[in-house]
Design goal:
Blueprint (H helix, E strand, L loop, with lengths): L2 H26 L6 E5 L6 H17 L3 E5 L7 H9 L6 E6 L1 H11 L11 E11 L1 E5 L7 H10 L5 E4 L5 H13 L4 E4 L3 H10 L4 E4 L1 H9 L3 E6 L25 E9 L4 H14 L3 H9 L7 E2 H22 L4
Parallel strand pairs: 1-2, 1-3, 6-7, 6-8
Antiparallel strand pairs: 3-10, 4-10, 4-11, 5-8, 5-9
Helix pairs in contact: 2-9, 2-10, 4-11, 6-11
């Protein structure tokens, strides 16, 4: 290096140091303003149930407001997921989403549509809830058992309407998985989220839906709905008398609706570490624990490393299910 190059490098060094110090300070000072937690569904569903108490707990821990933004649209949560994927990786836009996160890009490819986002754009932060899905029908429906439902569906192919949170969302995939195994055809009626689908079930617009225990328990307790089967491998404490699909002979029908917090994969490591620490505290909050347990969905926390492995395994199983289901409406 000649004298001119040496002087030039020396002159640039303070600027580089200043830039590095500024970036480090910006990360260390996080958060310095409001944080947005995108929920890609309307209020009333599993993701919303997970987001609101966690957001309140994070506010207390981080000292800044955490604002829940219900950004529905696109079917199954794709609009909100894509918005979070495109956000600046600075820790100020988080995503509380469901297991459909990995399914939706595959559905886009299945239909030769532009892919709204890729799962690789996200980094898992923490799993919050993980429940088996339940099959619910109105209390006024004629079906008292799953066999009653299947028998009727076989007599009237394509005539029993069921609601979902959108094409290839969690509730859609669960129902189509069951329908394929039972050899029945149902009428899919997509909504913008589980909340509107639940309202439609209560109002009689649809006659069945798959949903998480936390969004169904109060309605079942109030005598407004009946549950016929559980997509989990085992019975659950909040519905101890409800048989699983496996128990009823559907060995390949298993589905879980989990909710977890994600951020952009390019998020700086110091912010990710702080966020993980805050989430570990948040899920231990008495208010969070009480809210989830009252809803029949106890905390199912996983930290980032374990959650990343869980997401990879669950996504592979769901993607295989989507490919098996194929193009359905």
């Amino acid at each position: 290096m000649n004298r001119r190059e040496l002087l030039k490098a020396a002159a640039a060094l303070p600027l580089a140091q200043a830039a590095f110090s500024h970036a480090a300070f910006a990360q260390a000072a996080w958060p310095s303003r409001n944080i947005t937690m995108i929920v890609p569904f309307p209020a009333g569903g599993q993701a919303d149930l997970a987001a609101r108490p966690v957001a309140l707990a994070l506010e207390k821990i981080l000292g800044k407001p955490v604002i829940v933004d219900n950004r529905a649209g696109g079917g199954g949560g794709s609009v909100g997921n894509a918005a979070a994927a495109r956000a600046e990786p600075d820790g100020y836009t988080l995503l509380m989403t469901l297991s459909s996160l990995a399914v939706l890009p595959e559905a886009d490819r299945l239909f030769d549509r532009p892919v709204a986002y890729e799962v690789s754009q996200f980094a898992p932060v923490a799993r919050v809830l993980a429940d088996p899905t339940l099959l619910a029908v109105p209390a006024s429906a004629p079906w008292k058992t799953l066999q009653d439902f299947v028998d009727d569906a076989r007599k009237r192919p394509g005539q029993i309407p069921y609601g979902s949170s959108g094409p290839y969302g969690t509730l859609h995939v669960a129902m189509e998985m069951f329908a394929a195994s039972a050899g029945i055809k149902l009428l899919h009626v997509p909504f913008r989220g589980a909340g509107p689908a639940l309202t439609a079930l209560l109002g009689g617009t649809v006659q069945a839906m798959a949903s998480a225990p936390g969004t169904l328990k109060q309605q079942v307790d109030d005598g407004k709905m009946r549950v016929l089967a559980n997509w989990g491998a085992e019975r659950i404490p909040s519905f101890p008398n409800l048989p699983t699909f496996r128990e009823l002979g559907y060995k390949d029908v298993e589905f879980y609706i989990w909710a977890g917090l994600f951020t952009q994969s390019a998020l700086p490591a110091p912010i990710m570490t702080r966020l993980r620490e805050a989430m570990a505290q948040a899920v231990k909050s008495p208010e969070v624990i009480k809210t989830f347990e009252t809803a029949g969905s106890p905390v199912a926390y996983m930290d980032a490393p374990e959650f990343a492995k869980f997401v990879a395994a669950d996504s592979a199983r769901l993607i295989a299910a989507v490919k098996k289901i194929g193009k359905v409406g």
